[in-house]
Design brief:
The complex is a heterodimer of chains A (about 280) and B (about 325). By secondary structure, chain A is an alpha/beta fold. Chain A has helices at about 10-30, 35-40, 40-50, 75-85, 125-140, 160-170, 190-195, 200-205, 220-230, 265-275, and strands at about 65-70, 145-150, 175-180, 185, 190, 210-215, 235-240. Chain A has a single domain (about 15-275), classed as Rossmann fold (3-Layer(aba) Sandwich), CATH 3.40.50. In chain A, about 50% of the residues are buried. Classes of the chains: A alpha/beta (about 280), B alpha/beta (about 325). The interface between A and B is medium-sized, with 33 and 30 residues.
Chain lengths: ~280, ~325
């Protein structure tokens, strides 16, 4: 089986830019989708898929693969872009996003897209699923690891905290959760809609090992993700501080681009910025 | 008096047997293992039992993750929590990805009794039948329960199995063979067919005895599986008996009555009537008192059947 070679930081940064361009093109082509939270998660996804995860695009069902679950399923474009760049399917297929007959639904779907581990969209459900995967790995004495990416608005969902309790209770050190802390949810700033701070203290109090990191800084992400592999007896939470809409000037920190496609003119402008 | 047995106890003990032969069976509960009877499995296989605390939404998600990783996950709690409390999790994390999770929901229906309306699942079957790909079963006795649990364990895909709190009459002997696709003709008859499920099968049989004494020849079907529905038995009953009465410990909307009526209306229109919980929540009371309140008794079934026979052309 062909395992991907780890990329250098420079290559990863280049990859991140490529993913951003895919995201803009895809959402512009479908004229619907969620650019803001896709762009904020680019470095997190890039670090995972091109360096950290043990996976094989030619064998998506490989039993010993690491599992990645995009709990914030509306950020599907960034994941589709990464999967395509890894070779799970051809990059040309990305432009079918959200269209009739496409293998890329608006939100992640386990049955249709190669490489997608779980259907997600209704928020708050991915971490519970990840716990199930982590428990199974432990029962089967397999060393694959489970990574779950959550949105910060998603933390409003009560199920997330049920799962937070359970993962620590079951001492799941093969489980890593990452929060894409971009501070914006659909209706506005998270601290206006529903205050979730102090985030790090909350997760620590729930029994997790917590790192607060810069979520667009690839070396920091890699270090934190590598460190998580060495932690015993508890799950790891990475609070990745990001910027919603990162990389496109008129989308950065704008709640309106949570779920709105750029116009054709805006897409041209965005792609120019991402050259 | 026929022998009685508790279906949920049979469930708990069957899980242990399955656990011995299949290392991939895992069981989850939400702080009700002494009631759902998953406690037997917990004692025998503690490493494969996960008590999730009082957090049904999380439990269903964990069950989904285990199932996606190759396990056969049984998740149990009371029917009222297993269905509506975590419906979105069941829909999105289990039904949509069509994962191998068996939701075995105990304490279904009004026969929960004294706990009252809050704890009586009367709409759970409607919810579960609405989910694409779910198999929905309501066993009628302990013998059938064991076979249903074994069938579910050996069949891929999501299941919802509803069991009652009460002990109930044993209707079958050891020669009984559960067939998912086939309703069981408990007794044959040509004047009217009574279609029942769960605890109502025993009562339908008693009603048929009464009717027989009054010159009405009633067929009784145990429609153990609501989904997929045995349409052939329903059409045959409609053709041969010319009238159908359904009996269920559930509201009419989306349950046995409305599912049977859809088949009848489309294929073989004949007069029908329905014994079910009307559009209301119930209350505290002893199980038999509550069944009487909602007309779920042999006497009322017989009365409704007689009235229905008069409507035949």
């Amino acid at each position: 089986m062909t395992q991907l070679q780890p990329y250098s930081v420079e290559e990863l940064q280049q990859k991140a830019k490529t993913l951003r361009r895919h995201i803009i093109r895809m959402i512009a082509a479908s004229q619907s989708g969620h650019p803001g939270g896709s762009l904020s998660a680019v470095e997190i996804i890039t670090s995972l898929y091109f360096n950290i995860l043990r996976h094989d695009p030619e064998n998506p069902q490989w039993l010993d693969r690491d599992r990645f679950i995009l709990s914030k399923g509306h950020a599907a474009p960034v994941l589709y872009a990464a999967l395509a760049e890894c070779g799970y399917f051809h990059v040309d297929e990305l432009l079918t996003l959200r269209k009739m007959g496409s293998r890329m639904q608006g939100h992640c779907d386990i049955g249709t897209t190669p490489g997608i581990e779980m259907s997600t969209g209704p928020l708050g459900q991915g971490l519970s699923f990840g716990i199930g995967c982590a428990l199974a790995a432990r029962l089967d004495k397999r060393d694959y690891r489970i990574y779950v990416l959550l949105g910060d608005g998603e933390l409003d969902e009560g199920q997330v905290w049920e799962a937070a309790m359970a993962a620590a209770h079951f001492k799941l050190d093969n489980l890593v959760a990452i929060v894409d802390r971009n501070n914006i949810q659909l209706d506005g700033w998270t601290h206006d809609i529903m205050e979730t701070e102090p985030l790090a203290q909350k997760w620590r109090a729930f029994g997790w090992r917590v790192s607060d990191i810069a979520g667009h800084d690839i070396p920091q992400l890699l270090t934190a993700l590598e460190q998580a592999k060495t932690i015993k007896g508890k799950p790891t939470m990475l609070i990745a501080r990001t910027v919603k809409g990162k990389g496109v000037s008129f989308m950065e920190n704008k709640a309106e681009f949570h779920g709105k496609a750029p116009t054709p003119e805006q897409a041209v402008q965005a792609l120019k910025e991402l050259e | 008096m026929a022998a009685e047995a508790a279906m949920r106890e049979t469930y708990g003990k069957t899980l242990v047997e399955l656990g011995k032969s299949n290392p991939d069976i895992v069981v989850l509960d939400a702080d009700l293992s002494s009631s759902t009877q998953t406690k037997f499995f917990a004692k025998e296989f503690p490493e494969r039992f996960f008590n999730c605390g009082i957090a049904e939404q999380n439990m269903m998600g964990i069950a989904a993750g285990l199932a996606a990783s190759g396990k056969t996950a049984f998740a149990s709690t009371f029917a009222v929590f297993a269905s509506s409390r975590c419906f979105d999790q069941v829909r999105m994390s289990i039904a949509q990805p069509h994962l191998n999770v068996k939701i075995v929901a105990t304490h279904g229906g009004v026969t929960v009794g004294e706990d009252g309306a809050s704890h009586q699942a009367i709409e759970d079957l409607s919810l579960m039948c609405a989910l694409p790909g779910f198999t929905v079963i309501v066993p009628a006795d302990a013998v059938e329960t064991e076979q249903v649990i074994r069938y579910a364990a050996s069949t891929l895909g999501p299941f919802y199995i509803r069991l009652p709190r009460l002990k109930s009459a044993v209707l079958y002997d050891k020669n009984y063979r559960f067939d998912l696709e086939k309703a069981v003709t408990m007794r044959d008859g040509r004047d009217v067919t009574i279609i029942a499920m769960g605890l109502m099968v025993e009562r339908a049989l008693k009603a048929a005895d009464t009717l027989s004494g009054e010159g009405v020849d009633a067929r009784v079907l145990n429609m153990h599986t609501l989904k997929p529905l045995d349409e052939d038995s329903i059409m045959k009953a409609a053709k041969e008996a010319g009238a159908i009465l359904t009996v269920e410990e559930h509201v009419r909307q989306g349950g046995l009555g409305s599912r049977v009526a859809t088949v009848v209306a489309e294929s073989t229109p004949v007069p029908m009537s329905f014994v079910n919980i009307e559009d209301c929540f119930s209350s505290s009371g002893q199980p038999e008192e509550l069944l009487a309140k909602h007309g779920l008794t042999a006497e009322n079934i017989a009365k409704e059947a007689k009235a229905l026979v008069k409507k035949k052309r």
